[in-house]
């Protein structure tokens, strides 16, 4: 018999099946009436009550997470930064507003290279003078580096400002604090990254005015070329003389506008930096999950962290604002959207971390620090948790072993449904049934047993209401050998059921995913893609109700099929009406426990997989295993004594709340980051992405609620409600009630569009103009293309749509980015007031058989060059960098070029290896050289045709526009 199940019998030749109504028929006259009333238990949930409890639980979790994300500053700021808090906040807002009032600051513009640089130098000079009598010295250096980054990005005379703060007696070890003041075209860049520079100015002011000297120094780098392939940081770390003394860095950047700044990268392999953040940060917000997501390449962005860690070989901390990425890199990135508390928390954290590191011994002995990974995460922004990954591995495997031990005990000591049912069916014909009319006789109660006609028995289950099956056998009590055999039999039966239930769970995931995927495809085909972009709740209700409904439906069907297969055959005899509810409760309770074990097992496998692959994010399944397991063990006695009482349900939900609160917190982070990115996604269906994301959320969050489906009396009401929600929102979506974009000033969700007014000129072998074409090249930055624009601007339609191509150097177009589709409307020729000057200076044959061509070019601050060889020739070498990386199978190569204001004329050369044998089918030329010129600012940025087109776009569209020139020469 199962552990905890005892049968006290006076004979071994019958089975007693007691109807559920027997207890109420004692009329309270026997001595056990009060005991039985207390013993009365319920193992099935009332549908409304179960759904209400889970709903309230979910709403409470969402409320807690919402409050934590909205609370930017926790507690009261302390330290020197707080001593000048009023002035600091005022000055920071002043810095932020003054920098953004300059306007967009692209690399090479007067606004970036002169006006912003002068403002920063002026503020730094004030700090230097104000702190002259203090224990620290402030040294300012203006750097104009030239070089290559990522082999094919050349920069020339860009602007960096480096400020060195150190004790007056000097130091050998330096921290680095980095921000950038340049912006993309057409954006004021308040969050990206004027606020970072404003914070750095105030942190510099606070450190410079400390009365106690710091142990180490710090270099503040205000770089002016981050948006152009991270060139500013590369120029500093590879060329500045102070770079050799830098031991670690902090980078502050943005992927959104305002909110909390998250530590989403730390290291690499520098636990002491994570510990510094844990100990010093006043308002923690960090996640190793974000680090692993970012480093996987799932987020189409990069920061200066990569440059400093890769080229400088130094560890660091990467911070970024992530909230409201919908307006990142748009005209809406203005200072009024950044709350003062957002600035305060960033300043508090950076100042505290810098002070901690500049006084630490680790910075001076960084080479002796033990390398390794760290598991780190914050708990609702209140406290940080961090421990070495090796300790995490031990914790994870101990948790996994505990889970398997629990399941092993269940295998050996838990009875199985089939054993009870088979035995009952065999002897049911001879069963003695106690009728409801039987007069109770004098009874006695022993160990809370059943009182039946003067006999005292304990049932074949834990309680009276399970299934009063008392199995007897004419055989003597089992021997040790029989016990082992029975244990093995139970273990095998339990394992089979566990495997089958696991397969059912996986099948339910697959069917749920496919269902939601099909719905997403239908929505896309109906032209309603991204309807949720400005109405996220609509997408959650549509796909969430479909996913939840499908999960509930599959497990409801499985429950009913199982019940019909195993319970009804046993209860097909005369007293079926009394037997069926008994077995129904027994079977459903066992199935509920089985499915709880399945969820535990699946999360345990996820824990083992992530741990074995050295993923620090394995702590998530560890939490999802440990808390439910401990909760289950602690509530086992409560469940046996009182069943599914309100107390049991509340305690169960409280036990699940820690991992579930954190998991919902993580899901908020994922939605906060990835939903806005869909507005910049042109290659993958955002509808499928959201559907999959919501499906995964439902699957993960429902893990330890699936077994409730087997304990609830019915799911008809729940399925009907979910079906109604799904149908209503599907109809609303198809009717076009939800529009993806909005120009609401309080929460804009713009559609991003690129427009270039271009002129393409093709030259023949003699240098004469072979062809010329001009027009407006239009690119959509999201998956909906121009379907919402065409009704408002009929000229932008499929008749002017151009597919992407790979013929000749980039289709004779000055592509800013490679996109899926293009729309091209003929327009007048572009005549820039500062045209590009390009010429071939020389062409000579070398001793080693190549042809060397030297060129000279002078043009705007942003240009790109393409080279394509023909007739079997290939590019042997060039003057750009030490290495060449092929682009498009070694026939197409590209170079990006950018420069500051005072950059000289650019000279470069290429060497072509002529073909050994001419290709008669190929073109006459040996190489084609093309270049693009982008006018991102100034008087050449706009044209009459471009301005006329911009006026026709709706307010909910953000159009980034400029003029471009494409020229190709053949040699």
Question: Summary?
Answer:
Residues 494-733 form the Endoplasmic reticulum metallopeptidase 1/1-A TM domain. This protein is an alpha+beta fold and 971 residues long.
Beta fraction of the residues? 15-25%
Number of strands: 27
Shape: globular
**So what's the CATH class of the largest domain?**
Alpha Beta
What structural category do the secondary elements indicate?
Answer: alpha+beta
Kindly report the spatial arrangement of strands forming the biggest sheet.
3-4-24-22-26-27-16-17-19-18
Main β sheet profile: 10 strands, mixed
Keywords: Endoplasmic reticulum, Glycoprotein, Hydrolase, Membrane, Metal-binding, Metalloprotease, Protease, Transmembrane, Transmembrane helix, Zinc
GO cellular component, one term: endoplasmic reticulum membrane
Family: Belongs to the peptidase M28 family.
Main location: endoplasmic reticulum
Characterize the structure shown.
Keywords: Endoplasmic reticulum, Glycoprotein, Hydrolase, Membrane, Metal-binding, Metalloprotease, Protease, Transmembrane, Transmembrane helix, Zinc. It is found in: Endoplasmic reticulum membrane. GO terms for molecular function: metal ion binding; metalloexopeptidase activity. It comes from Esox lucius. Its cofactor is Zn(2+). By secondary structure, the protein is of the alpha+beta class. The chain folds into 4 domains: 62 residues, no CATH class; 293 residues, Aminopeptidase (3-Layer(aba) Sandwich); 289 residues, no CATH class; 222 residues, no CATH class. The chain is built from 24 helices and 27 strands. The strands form 6 sheets. It has a 10-stranded mixed sheet with strand order 3-4-24-22-26-27-16-17-19-18, sandwiched between helices. A 7-stranded mixed sheet has the order 2-5-7-6-8-10-9, with helices on both faces. Helix 13 packs parallel to helix 18, helix 16 runs antiparallel to helix 23 and helix 18 packs antiparallel against helix 20. The N terminus is likely disordered.
């Amino acid at each position: 018999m199962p552990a905890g199940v005892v049968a006290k019998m006076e004979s071994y030749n019958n089975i007693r099946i007691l109807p559920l109504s027997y207890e109420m028929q004692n009329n309270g006259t026997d001595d056990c009436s009060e005991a039985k009333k207390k013993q009365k238990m319920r193992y099935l949930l009332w549908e409304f009550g179960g759904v209400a409890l889970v709903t309230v639980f979910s709403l409470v979790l969402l409320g807690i997470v919402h409050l934590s994300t909205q609370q930017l500053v926790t507690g009261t700021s302390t330290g020197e930064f707080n001593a000048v808090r009023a002035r600091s906040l005022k000055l920071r807002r002043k810095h932020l507003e003054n920098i953004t009032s300059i306007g967009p600051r692209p690399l090479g513009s007067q606004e970036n290279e002169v006006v912003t640089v002068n403002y920063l130098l002026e503020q730094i000079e004030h700090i230097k003078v104000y702190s002259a009598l203090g224990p620290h010295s402030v040294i300012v250096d203006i750097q104009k580096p030239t070089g290559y980054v990522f082999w094919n990005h050349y920069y020339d005379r860009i602007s960096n400002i480096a400020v060195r703060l150190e004790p007056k007696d000097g130091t050998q070890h330096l921290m680095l604090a980095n921000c950038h003041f340049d912006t993309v075209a057409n954006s004021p860049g308040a969050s990206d990254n004027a606020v970072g520079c404003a914070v750095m100015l105030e942190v510099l002011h606070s450190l410079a005015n400390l009365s106690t000297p710091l142990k180490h120094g710090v270099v503040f780098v205000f770089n002016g070329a981050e948006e152009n392939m991270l060139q500013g940081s590369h120029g500093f770390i590879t060329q500045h003389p102070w770079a050799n003394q830098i031991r670690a860095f902090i980078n502050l950047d943005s992927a959104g506008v305002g909110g909390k700044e998250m530590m989403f990268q730390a290291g690499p392999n520098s636990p002491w930096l994570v510990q510094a953040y844990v100990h010093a940060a006043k308002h923690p917000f960090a996640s190793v999950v974000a680090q692993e997501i970012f480093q996987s390449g799932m987020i189409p962005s990069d920061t200066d962290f990569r440059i400093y860690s890769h080229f400088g070989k130094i560890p660091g901390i990467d911070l970024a604002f992530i909230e409201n990425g919908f307006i990142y890199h748009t005209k809406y990135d203005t200072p009024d959207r950044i709350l003062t508390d957002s600035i305060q928390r960033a300043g508090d954290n950076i100042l505290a971390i810098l002070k901690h590191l500049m006084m630490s011994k680790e910075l001076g002995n960084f080479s002796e620090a033990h390398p390794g990974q760290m598991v780190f995460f914050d708990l609702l922004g209140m406290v940080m948790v961090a421990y070495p990954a090796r300790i995490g591995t031990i914790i994870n495997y101990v948790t996994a072993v505990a889970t398997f031990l629990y399941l092993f005990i269940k295998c050996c000591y838990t009875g199985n449904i089939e054993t009870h049912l088979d035995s009952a069916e065999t002897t049911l014909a001879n069963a003695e049934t106690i009728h409801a009319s039987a007069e109770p006789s004098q009874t006695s109660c022993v160990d809370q047993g059943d009182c039946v006609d003067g006999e005292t028995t304990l049932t074949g289950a834990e309680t009276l209401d399970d299934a009063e099956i008392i199995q007897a056998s004419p055989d003597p009590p089992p021997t040790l050998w029989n016990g082992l055999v029975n244990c093995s039999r139970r273990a095998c039966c339990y394992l089979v059921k566990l495997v089958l239930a696991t397969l059912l769970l996986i099948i339910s995931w697959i069917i749920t995913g496919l269902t939601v995927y099909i719905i997403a495809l239908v929505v896309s085909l109906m032209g309603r893609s991204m309807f949720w972009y400005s109405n996220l709740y609509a997408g959650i209700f549509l796909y969430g109700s479909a996913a939840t409904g499908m999960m509930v439906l599959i497990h409801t069907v499985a429950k009913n099929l199982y019940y019909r297969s195993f319970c009804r055959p046993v209860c097909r005899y005369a007293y079926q009406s009394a037997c069926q509810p008994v077995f129904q409760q027994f079977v459903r309770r066992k199935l509920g426990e089985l499915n709880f074990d399945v969820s535990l097992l699946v999360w345990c496998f996820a824990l083992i997989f992530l741990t074995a692959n050295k993923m620090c994010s394995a702590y998530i399944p560890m939490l999802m295993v440990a808390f439910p397991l401990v909760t289950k063990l602690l509530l086992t006695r409560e469940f046996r004594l009182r069943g599914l009482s309100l107390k049991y349900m509340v305690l169960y939900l409280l036990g699940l709340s820690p991992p579930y609160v954190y998991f919902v917190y993580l899901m908020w982070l994922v939605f906060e980051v990835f939903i806005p990115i869909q507005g910049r996604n042109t290659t993958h269906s955002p509808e499928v992405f959201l559907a999959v994301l919501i499906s995964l959320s439902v699957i993960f969050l429902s893990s330890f609620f699936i077994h409730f489906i087997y304990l609830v009396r019915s799911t008809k009401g729940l399925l009907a409600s979910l079906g109604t929600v799904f149908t209503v929102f599907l109809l609303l979506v198809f009717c076009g009630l939800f529009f993806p974009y909005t120009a609401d000033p309080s929460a804009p969700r713009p559609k991003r569009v690129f427009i270039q007014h271009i002129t393409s000129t093709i030259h023949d072998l003699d240098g004469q103009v072979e062809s010329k074409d001009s027009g407006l090249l239009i690119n959509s930055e999201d998956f909906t293309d121009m379907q919402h624009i065409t009704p408002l601007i009929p000229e932008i339609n499929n008749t002017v749509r151009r597919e992407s191509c790979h013929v000749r150097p980039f289709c004779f177009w000055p592509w800013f980015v490679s996109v899926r589709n293009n729309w091209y409307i003929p327009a007048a020729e572009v005549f820039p007031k500062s045209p590009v000057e390009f010429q071939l200076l020389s062409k000579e044959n070398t001793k080693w058989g190549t042809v060397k061509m030297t060129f000279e070019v002078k043009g705007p601050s942003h240009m790109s060059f393409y080279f394509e060889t023909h007739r079997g020739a290939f590019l042997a070498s060039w003057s750009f960098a030490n290495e060449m990386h092929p682009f498009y199978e070694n026939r197409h190569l590209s170079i990006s070029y950018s420069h500051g204001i005072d950059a000289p004329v650019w000279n470069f050369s290429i060497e072509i290896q002529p073909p050994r044998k001419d290709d008669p089918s190929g073109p006459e030329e040996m190489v084609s050289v093309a270049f693009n010129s982008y006018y991102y600012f100034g008087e050449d940025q706009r044209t009459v045709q471009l301005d006329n087109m911009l006026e026709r776009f709706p307010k909910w569209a953000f159009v980034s526009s400029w003029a471009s020139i494409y020229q190709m020469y053949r040699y």
